[in-house]
Write a structure and sequence with these properties.
346 residues, alpha/beta, seven-stranded mixed β-sheet, 7 strands
């Protein structure tokens, strides 16, 4: 209807690879996901000279709605690490922490499948705002996010979760609560691998794991059936391809996201988890990195003092929270949260 909407249509069509796109089409319903959202908002920011956070798409998921926001004189997006994806609902809120890329768009479908009665808040790194520095330690991220969480929920019980790196941060948030004398929080890990040794020891440890995996894997490969061999080779091939795709995506990221991602990965490398006395639940992808094939608990057994429940989800690390797998994750998560709430009342 005007020049702004025309510019937005062009940007959306190029980013999504869909033509034509009407101004009332919903970004998330026409194939939009986190990496496309990053690309789209970055291009809009460059074209219009405005800082447009990715989470603006939660508030304005259509071109028409986005144009209304961008037309406002002097508009700037209010910044917070706490992102309300679903603020209504009668149940205790669930707080979910970002992965190494920093964006929280991928949590939208998880929240939607949990239903209208489950409040859902995401936590994003403050470094996504160009005016704020990146945290480079998991402990500092956890402290900052706890301050944000308490603006919504001053006291527990708390229900935390995190995807990939976010699982480490969620666990550290729970540990800091325990250190303050509060009751342990429920922690859900979405395909989070445990960095069970310090960075200084990790290279030799990884080499040992790889050698053990190769020798035992070759022996098992010789003994298994042709069908089992085919599945094993297919799994390795898929893992390698996914790793290459992830690296290619990383090269195409905007500079700000590359900075955030580097900070997050640095934090993950330096973090050493401690044993946790609260309830832990792991949603694990079926297609795993090579060093995890023979480790059903992904390293968490010695840190989960009450034990850790595990659900294996079809798909790989990048797709466990995407359709259609996210439906199963939401069902399992809803059941876990319900059981955890019952235990609190008993």
């Amino acid at each position: 209807r005007d020049g702004l909407e025309a510019q937005l249509v062009t940007i959306w069509e190029n980013a999504l690879g869909v033509r034509p796109i009407g101004i009332r089409r919903n970004f998330f319903e026409i194939g939009g996901h986190s990496l496309i959202a990053v690309k789209l908002t970055h291009q809009i920011g460059q074209r219009l000279g405005k800082n447009l956070p990715v989470v603006t798409l939660f508030e304005a998921p259509t071109i028409e709605q986005l144009a209304v926001i961008l037309r406002q004189d002097g508009w700037s997006s209010p910044w917070s690490s706490l992102v309300p994806i679903q603020s209504a609902g009668s149940k205790p809120p669930f707080f979910c922490v970002h992965g190494a890329l920093g964006t929280v768009i991928r949590f939208r479908n998880l929240s939607r499948h949990l239903g209208a009665e489950q409040p859902f808040y995401a936590l994003q790194p403050q470094g996504l705002d160009p005016s704020r520095p990146c945290h480079t330690r998991v402990e500092d991220m956890a402290t900052h996010y706890l301050k944000e969480v308490r603006l919504i929920q001053p006291v527990g019980p708390y229900y935390f979760g995190g995807y990939s790196l976010g699982g480490l941060i969620a666990l550290e948030m729970a540990q800091q609560l325990v250190a303050e004398g509060q009751e342990p929080a429920w922690v859900g890990l979405f395909d989070t691998f445990c960095p069970s040794v310090p960075e200084s020891q990790r290279a030799s440890k990884t080499a040992g794991l790889l050698w053990g995996w190769v020798t035992s894997g070759l022996l098992a490969f010789v003994r298994c059936t042709n069908e089992e061999r085919r599945r094993h080779v297919s799994r390795i091939g898929r893992t390698v391809v996914q790793g290459l795709k992830r690296r290619l995506h990383g090269l195409r990221l905007p500079a700000r996201l590359k900075t955030v991602s580097r900070a997050c990965r640095q934090a993950a490398k330096m973090y050493v988890p401690r044993p946790y006395a609260g309830p832990m639940f792991l949603f694990r992808s079926r297609y795993k990195p090579l060093t995890q094939f023979r480790n059903p608990h992904v390293g968490w057994t010695e840190y989960a003092l009450r034990g850790i429940e595990i659900r294996e989800i079809d798909g790989d690390h990048d797709s466990v929270l995407l359709e259609p797998q996210v439906r199963l994750v939401a069902e399992e998560l809803a059941a876990c949260l319900q059981n955890a709430r019952k235990e609190k009342h008993n």
